[in-house]
Design a protein that fits this description.
The protein is α/β, with parallel strands linked by helices. Helix content is about 25%, strand content about 25%. The strands form 4 sheets. Strands 2-5-10-13-15-16 form a 6-stranded mixed β-sheet. Helix 2 runs antiparallel to helix 3. The longest helix has 20 residues. The protein starts with 6 loop residues before the first helix and ends in a 9-residue tail after the last strand. The mean pLDDT is about 90.
């Protein structure tokens, strides 16, 4: 007979609940609530509603932030992600504030977490991945499908895998409505 919850899930769930000094049942309820909010946010048609639902999960979103369809803000640690005013996160981006190894590699590659900070006016184009501990400076643009694994300076165009600054942007930062 198979069990309903795998050993991997038990270990992972225990680690994360322990990190938050939370009872496993209370953490499970919080996780389920955040999962439902994320699923709703992925498909609602109005961008401001998507942003509101992600805020309800704990993601720190500034004013007038655009969040595209199917964006995944870290499912376990949404509060570790901050997005500045007027930033745009394109469809199908992934922002992960944690990493971990498998059950067999946990000793060599233990769970780690670090905040992600996206500055004011940043444009993260569709399909990008932003990894833990990254800060993207204000008014920068991240090219489609890029993987950002290190800090990006303000007023920069960065792209690729891993993302690298390919151009400094002049005359940015003025809000034009």
């Amino acid at each position: 007979m198979t069990t309903v919850i795998s050993d991997r899930d038990k270990v992972t769930f225990g680690e994360v609940a322990g990190h938050y000094h939370s009872n496993k049942i209370l953490f499970g309820i919080k996780y389920l609530k955040n999962w439902v909010l994320e699923r709703l946010a992925s498909c609602v048609p109005v961008p401001s509603w998507r942003a509101k639902l992600h805020k309800m999960r704990g993601v720190n979103l500034g004013e007038n932030v655009y969040v595209g369809y199917d964006v995944i803000f870290d499912r376990l640690h949404p509060e570790m992600i901050t997005v500045g005013d007027y930033a745009e996160i394109g469809d199908r981006c992934i922002l992960s504030a944690h990493t971990r190894g498998s059950l067999t590699t946990r000793q060599a590659y233990p769970r780690s977490m670090a905040p992600i900070k996206i500055g004011r006016g940043v444009s993260v184009n569709p399909g990008c991945i932003i990894t833990q501990g990254v800060e993207i400076g204000e008014n920068s643009i991240i090219g489609i499908g890029s993987v950002v694994s290190r800090d990006i300076s303000p007023n920069s165009l960065a792209l690729g895998y891993p993302a690298r600054v390919v151009k400094k942007l002049d005359g940015v930062g003025d809000l034009q409505t």
